[in-house]
Amino acid sequence: MTAKLNLANLIENVIRADVRAVGSYHVPDSVGYVKLDSMENPYQLPEELRAELGARLAEAALNRYPVPSYSTLKASICARLGVPDGYDVLLGNGSDELITILATAVARQERAAGSKRAVVMAPIPAFVMFARSAQFAGADFVGVPIRPDFSLDMPAMLAAIEEHKPSLLFLAYPNNPTGNLYDAADMVAIIEALGEHGIVVVDEAYQPFARVSFMERLPQHPNLVVMRTLSKLGLAGIRLGYMAAAAPLLEQFEKVRPPYNVNVLTQVAAEFALDHIDVLDRQAALLNDERTRLAAALAALPGVEVFPSAANFISLRVPDAERACANLHGAKVLIKNLSKMHTLLANCIRVTVSTPDENEQFLTALKKTL
Ligand SMILES: Cc1ncc(COP(=O)(O)O)c(C=O)c1O
Q1: Helix (H), strand (E) at residue 91
Q2: CB 291 within 8 A of CB 283
Q3: Contact (CB, 8 A) for 132 and 103
Q4: 60 alpha carbon – ligand 1 mean position (Å)
Q5: What are residue 248's phi and psi, to 5 degrees?
Q6: Phi and psi torsions of 172, nearest 5°
Q7: Model confidence over 81-109: pLDDT tens digits?
Q8: Cβ(123) to ligand 1 under 6 A?
């Protein structure tokens, strides 16, 4: 009986058509490569801290579910990462999960007559999970192209807000994949244009490198959510994101959050890392110095256009991105080809800023392809 069952038919019968139609989020195999495609911090914690962390992790109560209030970790985040007084955070298994929680919370169902699907909006090109999470949550995604200099196209943004009335609007600050910071006054105009009709999420994944933030503006804008992650600061492996917003908003998002979404090992590791945040901050400062050096070296290459970056990566245009990526791959250096993401990014590639040695390997390999 079971043997006769045709799995293709089963999938056709039960899996959503839009899920069947999309490809998987592709993460290339990186074993043996210089990995410059995912904006990771190349530095680990120093040896003595790792030993201490090991001892702390050994004490973690793996036999118990996490305590879902996560009060100690949240208090440490609020105290050390600039969350304004009176504001709390909600934790996610990476900010990827927070994006999903946000999209799910706004994606109203079309049961009432005349009720439309919710719209999630972002300037594009943007972090791919904004559109993907909106789609899977059952909301419509509307992307508004930025200008060729990567700034916000304000007339287009305001017109799109007026037309589509988004429930949720993501602004990555700095933006991935372009690396630039949008103009803060433009962002405030968008937050004010949405007002009571939409939530603006300022995604500050790269804040440790940009050193600017909308966090302190939370009290002025009740429809603002500030989202961050520990990933780019050097803890991508533990998967921890957080978002701060007015308490009544967090209360709603809390209902969508799976109760034990942050595991005890992550909790212990994050608390430990936050006690040593100065170490991570110094690593970020080193990477910022390397960004300056790498950007200058790239700008000096013939036919290369380097875009300004406030993040731990640099986006650049080369004469032939396809060839550059293939040659770099051959030289065992992984970077990201942005060409297919958007017409604005034709022949653009993105490279994570890494150690002086790895940056040099990238530069040497890139020079050979030009
Ligand atoms: C703008 C932006 N937001 C969020 C994320 C996801 O970060 P996390 O590792 O916390 O899921 C990324 C990852 O690259 C990103 O670029």
Answers
A1: strand 88-92
A2: no
A3: no
A4: 27
A5: -65, -30
A6: -85, 130
A7: 999 999 999 999 999 999 999 999 999 98
A8: no
